[in-house]
Amino acid sequence: MFCVIPQRAVLALMLFTACAISYMLRVNLSINIIAMVKEPKTHNTTFVPTCIAKSVTNVTIEEVSEEKFEKLTMGSDSEGDDGYQRYDWDSQTQGLLIGAYFWGQIISCAPGGLVAERFGATKTVFISTILAALCTFFIPLAAMVDWTVVWLLRFITGIMGGVIYPSLHCLISRWAPPVEKGKFIGALLGGSLGTVLTWPLLGMVIEKWGWPTSFFVPAVVAVLWSGLWFYVVSDSPQENRGISEAERSYIENSLKGLGNVDKVIPPYFQIFTSIPVWAFIIAHFGNAWGLFFLMTSGPKYMSSVLGFKLHSSGFLSALPYLARMLFGFFFGFIGDLIQKNKWMETTTMRKSFITCSHIIPGSLLFLLTAAECDVIWTITLITFSLGVNGASSITNLANSQDLAPAFAGSLYGIANTVGGTTGFISPAIVGYYTKDHNGIDQWRKIFYIGGAVYIVSGLTFCIFGSGENQHFTVDQKPANPEKGQKTGIENNAFESDDNKNNTTQI
Q1: For residues 133 and 222, is the Cβ–Cβ distance under 8 A?
Q2: Mean pLDDT of 441-464
Q3: Per-position DSSP letters for 95-158, written without gaps between them
Q4: How high does pLDDT run on average in the chain?
Q5: pTM to 2 decimal places
Q6: For 3-7, 13-17, 47-51, 202-206, which range has the lowest pLDDT when averaged over its residues?
Q7: Burial group, residue 227, by CB count within 10 angstroms (0-12, 13-18, 19+)
Q8: Which of 319, 290, 324, 129 is nearest to 220 (CA)?
């Protein structure tokens, strides 16, 4: 089996599932909290205006009583008839709870890359996933104590989740040949699958077994997956037991000259004084804004504004992430094809596709404000906006590998620290604008902000960004300094190594 299936293909699959599990633990509260809280009564009036979606093809605008609205969006369980307590958490408290994860994430992202580079990405991902799963498992118990205890558990979950992506970038820098990086970066869009599966699944779990079960399910799945990860994944080709000698040589030769170093403190002064690095960080911030905004507030918009029932809002909120994943694979393939055939310089490619990853999604959020209660147009625009953002697999998500291959994990961790702030800034903005009334006019302002952040960050990268190695220096010679050996990049991505041995090399 190991001789037939290249181990870097196995690794790519595990990277994909690692992101899916990470997002399962990250996004579950966004859908669960709708069932955990009572619908706040913000006015003394009997009726509140909202969009009620009776079906995808028959949508009208009604004025309904708060009691009717709760039954339409939550079902008969909204008052706790299922035997589980519901909490009087207002919109600002809910924003704090959803944002707690991201407060933890920004603390651990930057050091997460360093930890993975020094102590091993495999162990880092394994331990952090186990601890995050435990925190998720105990949230129903914590909610019985006080919302602040729930906040603390989500904060710790965020600390554990913050090290995941820097660790995965660390693995990519040691495993991915240059002409295959697009596919590996595309694998990091597995988080979209995590969202696609989690929201609809938990929506059904909540309606069938109650909201506490919706925390137990992702926790158990994460623990089981962690065992598979620890058994299958290794930190480098040299440490992998199942890899063939041909594949190991191919990977090593293709990475020669890229300055890979182990257990060295990154040159932070050079990193933080680099203009292309800051352009990358800003682009990543804009990308994270659009992603986390829909992740943290999408189910609320679908449920409380458009009027979908809980299981429907979970499914429809997840659709954009499915589109993002599929587009991400497509753009990753295109990026590798461009690199292999040298149709564009790396910098030109990154800046060209910023149009898809940032400019178009931002423009569609502006256009979304005109859709109002037209559910079909709303879902279409949101889905396409996040879908074309899948081009980030060959723009900001890949740029840390360009700028500093030896410190890709650390550099991505720094960018994700900054980008992670959007995870609590965005819910806070939503909470601020919807604290007195949760209607179309309030959400129009929220979409304007999101569109502006997308576009401005994208234009900044187009002006100041780069796809070239910045050659940050450290007081240690790069590993594998030998020159003049073949890179083997003419081989097809993930081609079986037995087949390579029987192929005439160019």
Answers
A1: yes
A2: 92
A3: HHHHHHHHHHHHHHHHHHHHHHHHH-HHHHHHHHHHHHHHHHHTHHHHHHH-HHHHHHHHHHHH
A4: 79
A5: 0.69
A6: 47-51
A7: exposed
A8: 129
Largest Cα separation within the chain, whole Å, is 79
Q: Is the pLDDT of residue 168 over 80?
A: yes
Residue 362 CA to residue 459 CA, distance in Å, equals 11
The Cα 199–Cα 207 span in angstroms is 12
Q: DSSP character for 388?
A: H
State the first-to-last Cα distance of the chain, in angstroms, to the nearest integer.
28
pLDDT at 200: 82
> With 0-12 CB in 10 A as exposed, 13-18 as middle and 19+ as buried, what is 314?
buried
**Distance (Å, whole) CA 41 – CA 91:** 11
Q: Which of 96, 459, 467, 100 is nearest to 277 (CA)?
A: 467
Secondary structure of 355-385 in HEC code, one letter for each residue: HHHHHHHHHHHHHHCCCCCCHHHHHHHHHHH
Return the SS3 of 55: strand
Distance between CA atoms of residues 305 and 447, nearest Å = 14
Predicted local distance difference test score (pLDDT) of residue 296:
64
Residues paired with 59 in a beta bridge: 53
